[in-house]
């Protein structure tokens, strides 16, 4: 899907289609004592990649994810998301960037109770100003992509944990984001269901989606084509 | 590339937020509903009362004067000079005059009732044109005319009729006046400005002087050109009693209604003030609940920010929710208030009048309260940085 909205091949060589670029990114929380959660990280993610950012808790994974996802700004260093230099952008511009080019999946799913799976997924298009009919249509097809074509009208309370996470994934990719972030997407799931979610990520990636998964689980990360190890805010290996 | 949230979707979000917490929504909007209902009901009831009053004033007119003989310096019976009606009728702006005489007689249901039990009722001699001058109505029967004035016939005031137990004229009813049987030919109504007449049996002058005795004039009712009332009031005492004009008393029965309206208006204002206090309390309750809601819904705010909501969108969502909450309360309150007004007016036999401005005003006030109550919680919600919101840290 990402391939359909990627930059035309003629203007850029395929192997340099970088959708996310971090250069010497530092995030420091004011103290005392000041804490450097992210300490000089440089990282490029190309279109079509599936990257696992893996590290123990406290290694700065979440902070890094927030910076990559334009939810937070770095103390220093450059972040370029889909050609946009994040540092100089206003709240409105950052919000627009998230609405149009980024997708997020959270550990706790964060679906709206009392609203059908389709409507939950349609929320992913809410801040693009798209009409309700078009939203529902695209939400249904996104749910089919994650294998929930038979659960369109179900409420979150009628779905299993794995199904809920699939709904959340559908919500993240309904807008065809240039890059999708998943923060511990299997953290609340049993091992079998976790495996299924991993398979889904692999399948989506095979269809062209660019995905960055954050996890503390090395075994899970090892199933992804590229792994980035994080410790104490620094990269160990890329 | 822009982040935008359609207006309809903003409303949808607010509705979703309220629906998800329906019990809390109902309780929170109840405060506003009670306040609005109180204000609307007070305005409606007072408007209905005023409409009734104005209708009465319209019918009875404000240009009626009652001229009576004041007590003499030495006490003694108060009477107007015999030529007072004729003299008064000669004054330019006077349109009509009708004199009455309070008789020294009692009215009883039958001879068998002891004479001392008068029931506070009196007997008054009247002219046939009195009813036209006063603008009264008949509950039953007819008023005295030139013919029945000469006969032992009487018209009872509404209070007198009730006390004498005469509620219908479907069959012939008799009462005993000064020991003689009188036929009741009519029951008068609409004399609420003239409590003395309501408590009287009215008879013709002719029969009064023939059968009962002397009928010295005790009062006159004077209908005046409405533009010259003050002038007439000034000249009447000397016209009626040139020798001692200070023994002439002039009252304007409609003043009693005007005074009642002034008292009603003061009470209405007090009640509206009380209702407004309820509204303010309702607004504070909304603000309170919304602040709590923002704390609870940090994660939702985080998810929405990650989906592309701007600070403005978050602010709008929570503000709209607060306004909607107040609007629900406002609409329920308007319905409740209008219902109370209707019930009250129907029970009292008043015309149902709920001023349309009061209804729109009430909803407008509710919206304003919702806006004020929502501003602070909404800006708090919008101020949460997205990275903190998705973490759920407090």
Structural class of the secondary elements of chain B?
A: alpha+beta
Q: What is the radius of gyration of chain B?
A: 34 Å
Topology as H/E string of chain B?
A: HHEHEEEHEEHEEHEHEHEHHHHH
Strand content of chain A: 25-35%
Please report the total strand number of chain A as a whole number. 10
Low-confidence stretches of chain B: none
Largest sheet of chain B: 11 strands, mixed
Short description:
The complex is a heterodimer of chains A (238) and B (394). With 238 residues, chain A is an alpha/beta fold. In chain A, 32% of the residues lie in helices and 26% in strands.
What does this structure look like?
The complex is a heterodimer of chains A (238) and B (394). Chain A contains 8 helices and 10 strands. By secondary structure, chain A is an alpha/beta fold. In chain A, strands 6-7-8-3-9-10 form a 6-stranded mixed beta sheet, sandwiched between helices. In chain A, strands 2-1-4-5 form a 4-stranded antiparallel beta sheet, with helices on one face. In chain A, helix 6 packs parallel to helix 7. Chain A starts with a helix and ends with a strand. By secondary structure, chain B is α+β, with helices and mostly antiparallel strands. In chain B, strands 1, 2, 3, 4, 5, 6, 7, 8, 9, 10 and 11 form an 11-stranded mixed beta sheet that branches. The radius of gyration of chain B is 34 Å and the shape is elongated. The two termini of chain B are 32 Å apart. The relative contact order of chain B is 0.19. At the A-B interface, helix 2 and helix 3 of A face helix 1, helix 10, helix 11 and helix 13 of B.
Helix-strand blueprint:
The complex is a heterodimer of chains A (238) and B (394).
Chain A: H1 2-5, E1 18-29, E2 35-46, E3 50-54, H2 61-68, E4 76-81, E5 84-85, H3 91-101, E6 102-105, H4 117-122, H5 132-145, H6 161-173, E7 179-183, H7 191-206, E8 211-215, H8 218-221, E9 226-231, E10 234-237
Parallel strand pairs in A: 3-8, 3-9, 6-7, 7-8
Antiparallel strand pairs in A: 1-2, 1-4, 4-5, 9-10
Chain B: H1 7-20, H2 22-60, E1 64-69, H3 84-89, E2 94-103, E3 107-108, E4 122-126, H4 130-134, E5 137-141, E6 153-156, H5 158-164, E7 174-177, E8 180-189, H6 195-198, E9 200-204, H7 205-212, E10 219-224, H8 229-240, E11 248-251, H9 254-296, H10 298-306, H11 311-348, H12 356-383, H13 386-391
Parallel strand pairs in B: 4-9, 6-8
Antiparallel strand pairs in B: 1-10, 1-11, 2-4, 2-10, 3-7, 5-8, 6-9, 7-8
């Amino acid at each position: 899907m990402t391939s359909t909205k990627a930059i035309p091949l003629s203007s850029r060589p395929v192997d340099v289609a970088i959708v996310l670029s971090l250069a010497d990114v530092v995030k420091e929380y004011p103290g005392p004592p000041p804490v450097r959660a992210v300490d000089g990280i440089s990282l490029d993610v190309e279109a079509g990649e599936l990257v696992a950012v893996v590290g123990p808790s406290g290694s700065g994974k979440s902070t890094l994810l927030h910076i990559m996802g334009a939810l937070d700004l770095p103390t220093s260093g450059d972040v370029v998301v889909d050609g946009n230099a994040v540092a100089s952008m206003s709240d409105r511009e950052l919000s627009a960037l998230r609405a149009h080019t980024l997708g997020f999946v959270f550990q706790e799913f964060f679906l709206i109770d009392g609203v059908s799976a389709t409507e939950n997924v349609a929320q992913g298009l809410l801040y693009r100003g798209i009409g309700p009919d078009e939203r529902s249509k695209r939400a249904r097809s996104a749910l089919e992509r994650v294998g929930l074509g038979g659960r369109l009208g179900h409420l979150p309370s009628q779905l299993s944990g794995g199904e809920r996470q699939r709904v959340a994934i559908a919500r993240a990719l309904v807008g065809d984001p240039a890059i999708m972030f998943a923060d511990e997407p299997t953290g609340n799931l049993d091992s079998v269901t976790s495996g299924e979610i991993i398979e889904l990520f692999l399948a989506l990636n095979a269809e062209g989606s660019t995905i960055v998964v954050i996890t503390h689980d090395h075994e899970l990360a090892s199933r992804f084509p590229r792994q980035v190890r994080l410790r104490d805010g620094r990269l160990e290996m890329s | 590339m822009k982040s935008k949230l359609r207006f309809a979707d903003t409303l949808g979000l607010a509705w979703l937020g309220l629906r998800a917490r329906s019990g809390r929504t109902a309780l929170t909007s109840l405060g506003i509903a009670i306040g609005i209902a109180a204000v609307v009901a007070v305005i409606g009831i007072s408007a209905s009362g005023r409409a009734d009053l104005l209708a009465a004033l319209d019918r009875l007119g404000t240009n009626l004067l009652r001229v009576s003989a004041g007590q003499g310096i030495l006490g003694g019976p108060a009477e107007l000079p015999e030529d007072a009606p004729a003299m008064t009728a000669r004054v330019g702006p006077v349109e009509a005059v009708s004199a009455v005489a309070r008789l020294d007689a009692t009215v009883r249901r039958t001879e068998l009732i002891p004479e001392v039990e008068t029931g506070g009722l009196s007997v008054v001699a009247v002219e046939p044109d009195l009813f036209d001058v006063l603008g009264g109505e008949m509950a039953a029967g007819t008023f005295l005319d030139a013919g029945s004035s000469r006969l032992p016939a009487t018209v009872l005031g509404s209070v007198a009729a009730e006390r004498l137990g005469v509620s219908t004229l479907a069959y012939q009813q008799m009462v005993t006046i000064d020991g003689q049987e009188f036929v009741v030919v009519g029951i008068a109504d609409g004399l609420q400005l003239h409590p003395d007449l309501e408590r009287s049996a009215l008879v013709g002058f002719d029969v009064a002087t023939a059968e009962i005795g002397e009928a010295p004039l005790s009062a006159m009712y004077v209908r005046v050109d409405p533009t010259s009332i003050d002038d007439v009031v000034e000249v009447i005492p000397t016209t009626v009693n040139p020798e001692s004009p200070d023994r002439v008393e002039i009252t304007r029965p409609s003043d009693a209604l005007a005074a009642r309206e002034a008292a009603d208006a003061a009470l209405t204002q007090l009640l509206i003030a009380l209702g407004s206090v309820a509204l303010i309390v309702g607004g504070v309750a909304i603000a309170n609940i919304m602040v709590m809601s923002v704390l609870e819904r940090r994660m939702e705010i985080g998810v929405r920010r990650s989906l592309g909501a701007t600070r403005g969108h978050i602010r709008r969502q929570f503000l709209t929710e607060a306004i909607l909450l107040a609007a629900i309360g406002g609409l329920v309150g308007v319905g409740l208030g209008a219902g109370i007004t209707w019930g009250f007016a129907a029970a009292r036999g008043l015309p149902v009048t709920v001023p349309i401005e009061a209804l729109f005003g009430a909803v407008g006030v509710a919206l304003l309260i919702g806006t004020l109550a929502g501003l602070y919680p909404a800006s708090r919600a919008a101020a949460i940085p997205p990275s903190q919101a998705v973490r759920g840290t407090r």
